[in-house]
Structure formats: C-alpha cells, structure tokens
Design brief:
Shape: globular
Helix content: under 10%
Oligomer: single chain
Largest sheet: 6 strands, mixed
Length: about 625
C-alpha cells in the first residue's frame, strides 16, 4: 500500500475559470492542512479569511468542484470523502470564496493503501538508549512498536493513536541495553481490525560509560520465578556523578535513565499514565557549593528526557504570593509529587513559619500541600500541617517536625492520604477534589484515631513509615493499606518500652497490610512481612507484585552500612527469597517494580530474555 502525497499542483476555480482575482495571493486558511485517509473515510474541512467566514464557498478536489468518485467527493460544507476504491492519484482540496473569489492554498490528502506504503523511519533521540520511531498512519489507526535483538523481537511499546485526521505517530522506543543493536518494527492496527506490518529497522544504542553505572548486583537465591516488570530506581547520595534516576531489567542491566543536572537528585521519580516520567529535582545538600545549573523543581519528561512541563519552587512561591497566602517562604519541594486525574499537581513542600514570642518552639520545620493547576498556572488549594496538628505532638522533636514523605490520591472519595514519618502518622485529608476544608479525617498510628486488637498495639503501629499504597480495590470505607514500616523507636509493650533498649527486642522493619474501617475507626494487621534481620532507619518502599509476591526496598539497614537492597519474596507462612538487588554506595530512596516503561504494557521475564537473546551484559 502507498501513502500518496500531493505535488505542487495549483488549481483554478471551478469550471476552469481564469478570473485574475481567483489567481491572487491566497489569504484563506484551510484546516486541517493535511490528512491521511483510508478508502471511504471522511474528514471535515473548514476555511476562513482572517476573522471572516467565507460566503458561498466553492469546495474543489484537484480543481473539480465537488470532486469526483475517483478522486473523492467534497460537499458544499467541506466534508471530504475519499474514493471507495484505492487510488494512486494525489489529492488536493481547495476552496474559493464566493465574494472575493480568492482561492486558498491547497490542503493535502494522502491516500493510504494497506498493501503498499512508505516505510517508517528510526532515528536517535536525546537519550542514547531511546530510539525515535516515526510512522505515517491513517485516520482511526493506532501504532505500536515491537523490538528485540533479533527479528523475533520479544517486547512491545504501548499503542498510540493516530491524529484525528491521520498523520505522523512517533513512538519513543525504550527498554534497550546500552551499546547493543536492536531490530524494531511498527505494527499498525487499522479500524477494520487488520494489522499492517512495517519493514524491519535496526537501531544501535549508544554506549553508557562504566563510571556512570551504579554498583548493582543481582542474585536469585531460590531459583524461583521472578515477577514481571522492570525495576525503577530512585537513588540518592550519588558518588562521582553516577546515575540516580534509572530503570534496570531484573539482571541489573540499565535499560533507561534520566540524567539530571550536576548537583541534582531525584526526589522522587515515577511513571505517569500518559507514558511520561514525573520527577522532583532536589538539590544535593551534601555539596558545599551546588552548581548553578541545579534547581529544585518538578519536571514532567518523556522517555527521551525532553522536558514537557516544569514547575519551580520559585513559581510556587510567586503563585502563593499572588493569592496572599501566609506561607510564601518555602524551604523546598521534597520526597513526593502527585499528578491527579484532572492534571493538577499536588506538591509537597516544607517551610518554617514565624512563631509567636514565648511559644517555646523555634525553629519548627513542617509541611504543606499545594494543589497547582498547570492550566491556570497558579495554586487552587493549599493545606498546612500547622493548621491541623498541635506542636505538642512531636515524637521526634519540632526541628524536623512532620517530615512528610508520600502523598497518594483516594479515588473513591477524592481525598488525599499523606504519610508523615516524624509524626508516626498516616492521615487522610479532606480534599474532596479541591472542595474540601483540609481537615484531618483520621490519623493512623500511635496516639491516632484507630484502635488495634488486643495484643497488636503498640508494637504493630507504624513508626517512621514510608510509601503507603492502597492494597484493595476500594480506597474508602473498609479498605486495606500497605506501607514500609521502618520501625524507628518502635514501642514493644503496654509500658511503652522502646525496641533496642537493654532487655528488649532489637528494632526491626516490616511490611504490614492494615485493614482500616473508617466508620468504626478500628483496624487490624491482616498480614505482615517482618524483616527481623533488617532495620532500615530511613526511606524504603513496598508493593505487591503481579504474581502475588511482595517486593520491598531496604534503603538504610543499620546492619549493612553502605548497601541498599531490594528483595522479592513469596507471601507464605515461611517466605522464600526469590530475587535480590544490591546497590552499593548509593541510597535507594525508592526501588520498585513497574510492569514496563509503558502504561498498560506488562513485560514478562521470558519476553525480556527473548528480546535480549543476543545481547551481552555491560557493567
């Protein structure tokens, strides 16, 4: 099949008129200016001359008023319908104004035949491990790309829809190892259900210098089956400019990365439903003099690292000032960022408010949430911990009073769930999709609003927790919540004795699943993975995998200094270690499994292996 493009054809008015006015310089704009159609498909054209609509317009196809069955027809209102049978004739649509007799520049219509067409193109992108694959697709079609080191391929990208009138579909192909040649092929899905396969293309990824690669090692002690997906790593304390935002396969090979500016660290990074990555660039506070290029801001990037949207701390401060808010002096964006279904950003920021003389508290660093509307470029809802929590509740002092580290959205009631590590609380905030008053609906943790069954409190409460996730289909009423329970200063008995003190059990981290009843304010631990040999005093994440296994990131284990590790274990009475990744010299703030680099696409381990059958691991 062929895509036939228009040549430099310029037509006169209908009926072959040679009126000199009709040959004057065109000032009429026709939309759309291009279209790619299959036989029988239609597209609506419109035209205007400046701000004026045309009067009695005459629509033509290749100079024929109304077109013809062979070229396609166009109605008096500009509705073009392609020929019912494939045609090799290039098609141009023009229009003449009935008053001025001015003629438009031609709009070009390409006719797509499924048996003979122009092959796609593959080129480099800003990321040497990401290819840019462009393919011309007709109206109503969709495109995905399969890729691998042989023509058996193995992996696929997600499916992308063609523009409404047909046109270029560009797919960023990611998930490839460095310095390796891959084959790739676009698969087009036509509205009829027919598949059209592009020619095979090859692409050789760029080299990744060994000095940039984190010190990663992987083992599979039990030889069990590893769950689908790849590992997304969010690393801090990057020595020698090593990568800090990256994804690896389950063998530890780097398959994607985002190179931040010198002096910046990801805090955090996460995959979005639109296929982009959302990252907060934090300034590395271990540097005495951070480079001028380092900035504290939110960035939405594509897989090639192109910045799609950015929001700086300065922007937020200016936005708060414009609405007369009382906490314009912010410290930093930190720990988490949430993009809501409506496109708004929930930004987590800290600040030090002025306290009244004689309060007995100084200084106090607390947290705020800012709902930022990217369309209006301003804050539309704000929340401050200082308005809802008394300063007397300070388990770890008021110097770093709340230390919030995660915010998630509860779709069932439109509220927000916030983890505040230094409060030992996970709270639900009355947000109601921006209409809530910000009141705290409940507090989960010691001295909170829920009660645990006899024998579970206080040892099972959350202490210094990270990364809450909803572990049930619902997020309100009676639902389940999972998190990484660091266990800092865990209370072990009714006398509030602290773990690790003489005569009491050592401190330990765990991954519990709590079932919360928001009506009765009761909760219970329905399952828990106790990491009796690990005690991570900061950071961490946990999630349930597609095969039912559990994965958690032990970032700062006091028993293995200088080493973070991520483990996949079975959820049995006696859990079995299936897979472990060790990361030396960098702190894994978060390390977690994502199904693939594309939303809605799951890469099994067998598919990843097949896609890299001839690749050599590079370290």
């Amino acid at each position: 099949m062929c895509v036939f493009t228009l040549g430099n054809f310029f037509c006169g008015c209908g009926g072959g008129s040679s009126n000199s006015e009709a040959l004057s310089a065109p000032t009429i704009a026709v939309a759309p200016v291009t279209a790619i159609l299959l036989s029988g498909q239609s597209v609506q054209f419109s035209a205007a001359e400046g701000n004026r609509s045309l009067v009695n317009p005459t629509w033509m196809v290749n100079g024929l008023t109304g077109g013809s069955p062979a070229l396609g027809t166009i109605s008096s209102s500009g509705l073009y319908t392609a020929s019912a049978t494939p045609s090799t004739t290039a098609v141009q649509v023009t229009v003449i104004d009935g008053i001025s007799k001015a003629i438009s520049n031609p709009a070009q219509v390409s006719l797509f035949s499924p048996t003979q067409f122009e092959a796609g193109t593959v080129s480099t992108s800003n990321n040497p491990q990401v290819a840019q694959y462009t393919f011309q697709a007709p109206q109503g079609a969709s495109v995905q790309v399969q890729f691998g080191t042989s023509t058996n391929y193995g992996l696929t990208t997600w499916v992308q829809e063609a523009p409404a009138t047909g046109g270029s579909v560009t797919t960023l192909v990611a998930g490839m190892r460095a310095n390796t040649t891959y084959h790739m092929q676009a698969i087009m899905h036509l509205p009829s259900g027919q598949q059209v396969m592009d020619a095979d293309h090859t692409f050789t990824t760029g080299d990744l210098p060994a000095a940039l690669i984190p010190d990663i090692s992987v083992s599979q002690p039990g030889g069990g089956s590893v769950a689908s997906g790849v590992e997304l790593l969010d690393l801090l304390q990057a020595p020698k400019n090593q990568l800090s935002a990256l994804a690896t396969d389950m063998d530890g090979n780097v398959i994607w990365y985002y190179k931040l500016n010198p002096g910046e660290l990801p805090f955090p990074i996460k995959l979005l439903p639109n296929g982009h990555m959302l990252v907060v660039s934090a300034i590395d506070t271990t540097l005495v003099s951070p480079p001028a290029t380092a900035s504290n801001e939110v960035r939405e990037i594509d897989l090639a690292g192109n910045v799609i949207y950015r929001l700086s701390l300065i922007d937020i401060v200016q936005g708060l000032t414009s609405i007369g808010n009382s906490f314009q002096s912010l410290g930093s964006l930190h720990h988490d960022i949430l993009k809501l279904p409506n496109g708004h950003l929930i930004c987590l920021v800290n600040y030090n408010p002025p306290l009244p003389d004689g309060s007995g508290y100084s200084p106090v660093t607390g947290d705020a949430l800012v709902d930022w509307d990217p369309q209006q470029q301003r804050p539309v809802w704000i929340w401050s911990a200082f308005d809802h929590i008394p300063l007397t509740h300070a388990p770890y002092s008021t110097i770093d009073w709340t230390h919030a580290n995660a915010v998630i959205y509860s779709p069932d009631d439109g509220n927000l769930i916030l983890s505040m590590r230094n409060q030992n609380w996970i709270v639900k905030i009355n947000y109601q999709d921006g209409a809530g008053d910000g009141s705290i609906l409940w507090r989960l943790g010691p001295d909170g609003d829920f009660s645990l069954p006899s024998g579970q409190a206080p040892i099972e409460w959350n202490y210094g927790q990270h990364y809450p996730t909803v572990a049930s289909p619902n997020s309100a009423g009676i639902f389940q919540l999972m998190f990484f329970n660091n266990g800092n200063d865990r209370l072990v008995d009714a006398a509030n004795d602290v773990c690790g003190t003489p005569g009491f059990i050592p401190c330990y981290s765990s991954v519990p699943v709590f079932e919360l009843n928001e009506i009765t304010k009761t909760t219970q631990v329905v399952s828990e993975q106790k990491l009796s040999s690990a005690y991570s005093i900061c950071c961490g994440s946990a999630s349930q995998l597609s095969n039912g296994d559990l994965e958690y990131d032990v970032a700062f284990d006091i028993y293995t200094p200088g080493l973070s590790f991520v483990q996949e274990v079975t959820q049995q009475a006696t859990p079995q270690l299936v897979w472990q990744m060790n990361i030396a010299g960098q702190l894994a703030y978060r390390g977690f499994r994502i199904p693939s680099l594309y939303p809605g696409v799951e890469w099994t381990q067998s598919a990843i292996a097949a896609a890299n059958v001839s690749a050599v691991r590079k370290k």
